[in-house]
Specification:
Organism: Danxiaibacter flavus
Largest sheet: 11 strands, antiparallel
Helix content: 10-25%
Protein name: DUF3108 domain-containing protein
Number of strands: 11
Strand content: 35-45%
Distance between the termini: 61 Å
Signal peptide: 1-19
Keywords: Signal
Order of helices and strands: HHHEEEHEEEEEEEE
Structural class: alpha+beta
Mean pLDDT: 89
Shape: globular
Length: 227
């Protein structure tokens, strides 16, 4: 009897998961919203385009502004170019740190399709959440395994406007302990290719260093997309 109850509970749990996914897909169909929003990744889409990034890093009260360019046709080690730092030519140290950071081969985290669920469905927005598929995470981003991702879809035009990633509990990233992280991303829709690309991404993180809190804010503005 105990074994039967456990099996029944497992099957009910699986049915509930698939029911949630089906409910999301049916809701998309109801409002004529393309499921490309669920199936594609904006950063992965951007890898096929050349573009410019205007990046701002604020930490410890200091601001660093850089202009960066991405060239998909070049070799992997040469695709990212540091154009300027705080309005001037980058130093050798700037270039070395930039190349080290941008040459990291970190796979893009993908959604766990069984975790989709509808958070809100009102007159203006359909709001959907999911968690990352842990099998697509590596050591460098595994700390995001429990982070919920929220998608804000404008029901009037059927477009994804923005997404939000928020840590619900303190976490550890490499050697640092962090109290929270929030990532807000807005998107641009390319109708010709039926793709979403990042338009602006802002990340706010509070970490603890030697017992003191430090807030790091990174803002990336993407422009000049060309394929």
């Amino acid at each position: 009897m105990k074994k039967l109850i456990l099996v029944s509970s497992f099957l009910m749990g699986k049915s509930f998961i698939f029911a949630q996914k089906s409910a999301v897909i049916e809701t998309f169909k109801k409002y004529n919203i393309s499921t490309i929003i669920l199936d594609s990744n904006a950063k992965q889409n951007a890898a096929d385009y050349s573009y410019t990034v205007h990046a701002t890093l604020i930490t410890g009260g200091q601001k660093k502004v850089t202009e960066e360019k991405y060239h998909p046709a070049k070799n992997a080690a040469e695709r990212w170019e540091l154009v300027s730092v705080n309005g001037g030519a980058p130093s050798k140290t700037d270039k070395k740190l930039f190349n080290k950071e941008h040459n990291q081969q970190i796979p893009i985290a993908k959604p766990d399709s069984t975790s989709y669920r509808i958070l809100k469905d009102d007159a203006d927005y359909l709001i959907v959440s999911y968690h990352y598929d842990t099998s697509t995470l590596v050591a460098d981003n595994n700390f995001m395994k429990d982070f919920p991702v929220t998608l804000y879809i404008n029901k009037k035009n059927g477009r994804l406007e923005r997404s939000e990633v928020i840590s619900e509990e303190p976490f550890k990233v490499k050697v640092f302990k962090a109290d929270y992280m929030m990532v807000n991303t807005t998107y641009i829709y390319i109708e010709k290719t039926d793709q979403y690309l990042p338009l602006q991404e802002e990340t706010t993180m509070s970490i603890r260093i030697l017992g003191r809190n430090a807030e790091i804010i990174t803002s990336n503005e993407y422009s000049n997309y060309k394929k």
